Amino acid sequence: MVCMVPLICRIRGTVILQLWYKIIFCCLYAGGLVGIHKYAGYNVSIPKDILPVISVVVGLLLVFRTNTAYDRFWEGRKEWALLTVYIRNLARTFWIMVDDHNDSSVIVEKVTVINLLVAFAYATKHYIRSEYSYEEEDLRDLIAFLPRTFFPSSTTPLHEQESQVKQIREGTQGNIPAKKAPPPPPPTTENAKKRRASVPYVASSYDSVPTNIPLEISYYIQSYIKTVKDRNLIDNPTCRILDTALGNMINCLTGFERIRRTPIPMSYSVHLHHATWIVILIVPVTWIKDVGWGTVPAIGVAAFCLLGILEIGREIENPFGYDFNDLNLDDFCQIIHKECVAIVAQKFPDPKEWLFSETNRPIIANAKSAVDLAKMNNDQIMIMLNAEKDYIFSDKHPHEHKVKFNNTLPV
């Protein structure tokens, strides 16, 4: 169970820093109304009857806004989990199923294409953050050998891309500096913040043009799948598995683009802000008569609740940035990288080495090793397996998996 005291006292990662000046404004506004009502002789209070209807409508709108934003956040996390699954499957299949015949050149090929899978993850991270440089620290070494091409981005409006490409082709941006993302808010990790602040970009024309680097990488991975198929290093079922997994990676990339390029409609966002502020500005004049100066702290609490929900929805609707509450994409990519490095760090084991090991005792109720069991005939093994069943369902089993069957029907 989470301790509530640290959460109550927590400031970092909350929306308080985005709200404090708005709350102060609301309190000053309420204090001014109370002063006018009490000391200037003006009756600024209005009946409370109109407030409940407006409050209910605004409350429903706020709930819908927050749920929509959280759905986008959660969908982004699910898409990244699926991308991780497909990269793991591809890396495992490339390493084990592509027959290298102990040829060092094929081993180098497999390591290279698995590195491209890692590069796909890093490139996707930067792509959905609108960072289009080939010289990102975590990406450049993995794709340094690939030709630079141009695939239109789906995270930037097409007319902007066409304008920038045209300028580059005309030579008007021959010596432009590399485009960097706007100064980010606190990143997901402190290391990411230090890294991006200390590593200079190597400028190139492509650094200023939105380009779909993950899609480029998938092009080379697909070409390798075709090559190993043509060389008969994989069979048809394995080729289909690789094609399907790579296609699913592109599906994930498209899912990220959909989240990134489908904002909450402007009319809805603007209307919700207007309605929320109308409620906040009306509430004090309905409380002045009964609450007096207590209206000031009360409106501060109300503003904190309503504006806080509004700000939370705005913050989490794009989960791919550098905000404290955004998805930790840096960590996700590093996990994928380390897993792929671990896969290629060892040759896949021969099943004979571990299936028929002296320490492998497949039948728990019998202490015989797999080597001894392999020397027996089928009838002897089946007798032992039946004894194993009785042992597992008995009280003697250490895990106490007690399952009792009653074949009698109730009368």
Automatic annotation (TrEMBL):
Residues 154-196 are annotated as: Disordered. It holds the Pfam family Bestrophin_2. InterPro entries: YneE/VCCN1/2-like. It comes from Orchesella cincta (Springtail). The keyword RNA-binding does not apply. GO terms for cellular component: plasma membrane. Keywords: Cell membrane, Ion transport, Membrane, Transmembrane, Transmembrane helix, Transport. Coiled coil: none annotated. One of its GO terms (molecular function) is chloride channel activity. It comes from the Eukaryota. This is Uncharacterized protein. It is found in: Cell membrane. The chain crosses the membrane at residues 19-38, 50-68, 268-287, 293-310. It is a multi-pass membrane protein. Residues 159-169 have a biased composition (Basic and acidic residues). Its main location: membrane.
